[in-house]
Fold this protein.
Amino acid sequence: MWRSWAVVVWMMAVLAMGASADTRQAQQGTQTDRAAAVRIADTRARAERGNADAQFALGLMYVSGNVVPNDDAQAAGWFRKAAEQGHAPAQWALGILLDEGGIGVPQDFVQAVEWFRKAAEQGYWRRT
């Protein structure tokens, strides 16, 4: 009888430790989610104020779909805002989106070449 109670107590302790670890992970995940939300809000605020680096960063977030839901049209819009300010990496990124097309972004080789050219004139180019 003693052994069976010892096993039950041991199993409860193991389950409690697992639950405790899950709780800690959930709390850490919540803290991470909050920190990411703050970074996204900060980047969006700077982008809306016209900061080309922030516009490019927000475009990358939308095209990757890792931080915010994937949205090629949003990405293209933010890349275009930065590209029009002369941001070479944004010009290149916009060229790629236009070259490949995407959901909400029609394929346009002529515009893609123009954005690639503008980036290249600033010394920025990447192999794709």
In short: Residues 2-121 form a domain with the Serine Threonine Protein Phosphatase 5, Tetratricopeptide repeat fold (CATH 1.25.40.10). The longest helix spans residues 2-48. The radius of gyration is 24 Å. The mean pLDDT is 81.
